Model the fold of this input.
Amino acid sequence: MQPKDFSTRSSFPGTTENGFDHLLRRFQAMQNLSPILFGVLLLALAMLPYLGRWLDGFFLWIFYLVDWGLLASLPRFKKSFGPSQPSTLVLAILRLIIALLPVSIAFPLQAIGTILVIYAFWIEPHHIRLTSQALHTGKNHFNPGLRILHIGDLHVERITARERQINQIIQETHPDVILFSGDFINLSYLRDPEAWEAARAIMKDWQAPLGVYAVSGSPAVDLPDVLPSLLEGLPIRWLKNEKITLCLHDQEFDLVGVSCTHKPFIDGAYLSSLLPEKPERFTVLLYHSPDLAPQAAAAGVDLQLSGHTHGGQVRLPLFGAVFTGSLYGKRFEAGRYKVGEMTLYVTRGIGMEGMAAPRVRFLCPPEIIVWEIQG
Done:
């Protein structure tokens, strides 16, 4: 796969320059509406498709209010901590489309919609899946195999049951090395000391025989003036465009960590400087976004571990992610890919988008990946 030339683009995912970030920030203003005014807005939307059939519009409004109540209750039950009104408006617009169907069909679908809201906001985001992956390499003779635990996209708001699962999984899997591919804090809480302390409380217990390593994530999330303080004193080595050599049972392998700007023509140059020749040892690239995969494959990387896309958070049957935030669109939305001779894995991550984005996961549960590398 040949790398694409993105050097003429003016907008990049994961930065404050892109349209999605602008949309989130503008939509955030919906939270500033008073509850009474927002309730009236929902009532007007509910009446819109029924043209004077007030009773039908009233029942649709009840569905809207139930959605609003479910989302507004999430912080109280320590599930997630985002604004309720922007997400409620998104759901209201989706329900408005269903309301165009005949009433005998529309209202059963609206009831099913309520069940899906409960599942996607209250249940699925809080059950981490442990994904097991195996990879064979002819470069090293790992015996026993090298166990790599890959975590991505914490996006911590506060400590919830989801975050507590992380350390339990680490203890149960006994990895040789832990790799984190960036995005520590949720976009809504970038300068919130309570979110910082929550993240530090989670990461202070991360331990592995070969160490714990991380790279910075999106520039809009892992702020350069915040990250040093956030990681200070933690048992985590922050890799900033550098290559290190690790050793397991007399078998050396290389770990490359590249800081993410979301501009492959910049980050690819850093990677090329770290790997001027194709490496003879097994080489792992830790990089926040999958968009560097074509350059990494050409440089001789064996395994690239990335995140950023969250798997889309919302996936549809037979279609997959609705939105990915990748320069390559849906090409690298989630999971395992073969790019040339290199294996790429894009984790669905742990946390969720911030600002006005819904704290939702549907057919896209959070995950931690454990790799077994065999010679």
About this structure: The chain has a mean pLDDT of 95. The chain has ten helices and 14 strands. The first strand starts at residue 129 and ends at 136.
